[in-house]
Amino acid sequence: SFKKNSSFPRIEKLLATFFLAVFIIAAFLMLQVKPNTLIWQKIKYLHFIDLPWRFLGITSLSLAYLAAFLAKVLKPGFIFIFLILTVLIANRNHLRINQSLIFDDNHFANYTGTATQYNEFTPIWRQSTRVPIGFDSSIKVEKLSGESDISNVLAKSKSLSFEVDVYSENSQIRINRFYFPGIKIFVGGQKLIPHKEFEITNVASLNIDKEQDASGLISIKLTKGNHKVDAKFGETPVRLLANYLSLGSLLLAVVLVLRNAKK
User: What is the tens place of the pLDDT at every residue in 212-234?
Assistant: First the structure.
């Protein structure tokens, strides 16, 4: 059909071929067949995907472009309508909820797990998946040792600032937020180095039998005097890269739409 319809730009044909190949590969990797099992066992990088059905996202993206391409290729409108009806009929069992589970407020009030199957959103320094017993979300910062007073705590979604008056030689302060790469801690405007100038509580720094609920949190040591502490909760490198890719894709899409509109 490509040869017959020479009006299609070469880039559209190449993209159609690319997405067709991507769809076929992704769909094949979701099949439970022997050759597929060997591929999953031999290619270690596939283990990061964890579950084969996660390729559904790739197939959906590929089919979206292929459907748009076919709609442009197939001039008779009834063929396009037939394809839409076929999709609706094939997915008829997904148009309704097969089973509903109802949980009351008491369930969530006592739930100590996470919302993910394998806790993949939990930082590597966290030694437990449960919510700390007696945890008070209103306490953003607390003293662990030494004599000190914490004041002027200002907590926002992407930052946390407070002041500490230390009366003893040293005082250890804990920020009750999990550490992720991208979080920056400043004391008196000076940036601290992770694992050197501030600590992420883990197996080496805790009695796990008693304190595993506190693992993964940020702990800093301050000397005698007044200190202004600022914490900036930035993105991890992977998420930052993903954000730039999304922004770049959006800008590219806008440019292509505007260019085609002028034609």
Answer: 778 889 999 999 999 999 999 98
